[in-house]
UniProtKB/TrEMBL annotation:
InterPro entries to which the protein is assigned, alphabetical: UNC-50
Homology family: Belongs to the unc-50 family.
Coiled coil: none
Keywords, in A-Z order: Membrane, Transmembrane, Transmembrane helix
Organism: Timema podura (Walking stick)
Name recorded for this polypeptide: Unc-50-like protein
Keyword Ribosomal protein set for record: no
Membrane topology, as annotated: Multi-pass membrane protein
Transmembrane segments: 71-98, 131-150, 157-175, 181-203
Length: 215
């Protein structure tokens, strides 16, 4: 009984956690950027270590979600940098860059009740960030280095390389025990093969979409 009461006291409301998290956004000296870089690196090399850290945080701080916004700050930095490179590759002006940077929007489902069965809004947001970061680096950073010299060309190897990057980015699993992901991965593999057979350059299509979306 006493343990249950203590657990309830340690369990902050969603609003309180959100306020505490957002308040730390302006305190850069209190952010652990080195640890955030470590997490970004292991999202590619050993994602299980990142999710193991969520479990440790639950044991020590009674919450799965990150209480340090350093990861979000670094991800925002990468998003801004990649948007600048996109604007350069697509030859967009300053106004086009601003429109492209604001093109992505996020919706959140917040559960105010703090129960063991509920998923913390912050943890759900962290999972979203973890899933988005590898895709951002592959499609918004690595891909841009090869777009003008290779991917944008009307060659089969251009379609093969560009479409392979999309397959890697969308099919990259970052979760532990991902048997259920085999079903969507099968669909992705079929789309990948069909795109090569019909000569569809996915990157070129999406680049055109990005460009004319902000014009």
């Amino acid at each position: 009984m006493g343990k249950s009461v203590e657990s309830r006291l340690d369990c902050m409301s969603a609003a309180a956690k959100r306020y505490k998290y957002l308040r730390r956004l302006i305190k850069f000296d209190q952010m652990d950027f080195e640890f955030a870089f470590w997490q970004m690196w292991y999202l590619f090399t050993a994602p299980q270590k990142v999710y193991r850290n969520f479990h440790y945080r639950k044991q020590t701080k009674s919450q799965f979600a990150r209480d340090d916004p350093a990861f979000l700050v670094l991800l925002s930095f990468w998003l801004c940098v990649s948007s600048i490179v996109f604007a350069f590759v697509l030859r967009l002006g300053f106004l086009g860059f601003i429109k492209f940077l604001l093109f992505v929007s996020n919706k959140y489902l917040i559960k105010p009740a703090c129960q063991d069965q509920d998923v913390e809004w912050g943890y759900a947001f962290d999972v979203h960030l973890n899933a988005f970061f590898p895709l951002l680096i592959i499609l918004h950073v690595v891909q841009l280095f090869f777009y003008n010299v290779l991917i944008s060309q009307d060659w089969f190897v251009s379609k093969l390389f560009g479409n392979s990057l999309w397959l890697l980015a969308l099919g990259l699993s970052i979760l532990h025990k991902t048997q259920l992901l085999l079903y969507p991965l099968t669909v992705l593999a079929i789309v990948y093969i069909v795109s090569l057979v019909i000569g569809w350059n996915i990157t070129h299509t999406l680049m055109d979409f990005y460009k004319y979306r902000v014009l």
